[in-house]
Amino acid sequence: MKDLSHQIKSALFGVAIGDALGVPVEFKSREIIRQNPVTDMIGYGTYNLPPGTFSDDSSMTFCLAEALTHDFDLNRIAQNFVKWYHENFWTARGEVFDIGIATREAINRIAKGGQPEFAGSTDASSNGNGSLMRILPLLFYIKDLPIEERYQITKKVSSITHGHIRSVISCFYYIEFARAILLGKEKFEIYQNLQTEIPDFLNTRSINPNEISIFNRLFQENISEFEEAEIFSSGYVLHSLEASIWCLLTTENYKDATLKAVNLGEDTDTTAAIAGGLAGLVYGFDSIPKSWVEQLARKEDIDDLAKRMWEKLH
């Protein structure tokens, strides 16, 4: 079996460093950031925290990865999220300082004994990016399974906090993109292939066609040719997915992809975490600026988590 330890490390650090880059300017508009663009790892700002502090995006990613160092168990994943929110498990500096509404509500349902698979809201208004931002470690567990199983497992893991089909499709698209990177395909080739592969698969299922057509900018157009003004960076899951793919396709290295994501403004940490996960996989851990890695909170713990995940999965 191919040694994926480096890819696991690249994915985990890719997410966390993108996240940490965005934390100090979260909620700032694109116009405000444009006056003083982010060009390096900075600190303080929005939450007044030191450089290298990651947020809920990475904490929940690590909670999922931590669960995958054991056998796959939806309940374990969900309980790790509860431990994060209630006991500061896998926080950067011992406290939770950022959490989405839908995520908080789902975690509270689980804490009261709710079933993980049905904890996430299925309401169309609950399509924030809270499941997309943390889904990447699942790739390494499902990568060799048939597409139907990959979809079903992704759906279950998304639904712990976000159960609507739009969030599920977003997570599925993202995982399929990441899987193709692992298979050695080039990013533009992947983008093109997914334009038929994903809709073809989704159309075999009883999914409302209107929900599939919501993804048409990815499925039918070349998003890399869009102007920045056509790319949105709110906390809405579709915006986050489109923006992260756009950042990946319009840059040539990890640093530029993540900084581009941050400088889009608004949900800066999450856009950069999602883009950073893919960029980490495309360019590898060694492509991430060393000074950024050095400043990252809990870098030794993250490195250890990647190793433990690899030991379990092979």
Short description:
The protein is mainly α and 314 residues long. The protein is built from 16 helices and no strands.
What does this protein look like?
The chain is mainly α and 314 residues long. The chain is 58% helix and 0% strand. The chain is built from 16 helices and no strands. The protein has helices spanning 5-22, 30-35, 56-67, 74-87, 101-111, 138-142, 147-159, 165-182, 187-202, 209-213, 216-220, 237-249, 254-262, 268-283, 290-295, 299-313. The radius of gyration is 18 Å and the shape is globular. The model has no long low-confidence stretch (mean pLDDT 97).
Which of globular, elongated, flat, extended, rod-shaped describes the shape? globular
- Percentage of residues in strands: under 5%
Q: Topology as H/E string?
A: HHHHHHHHHHHHHHHH
Q: Total number of β-strand segments?
A: 0
The Rg value, from CA coordinates, equals: 18 Å
Mean pLDDT: 97
Subunit organisation of the chains: single chain
Q: Low-confidence parts, pLDDT < 50 over ≥5 residues?
A: none
**Overall helicity:** 55-70%
N→C terminal distance: 7 Å
Report the structural category.
mainly alpha
Most strands sheet:
none
Our count of helices gives 16
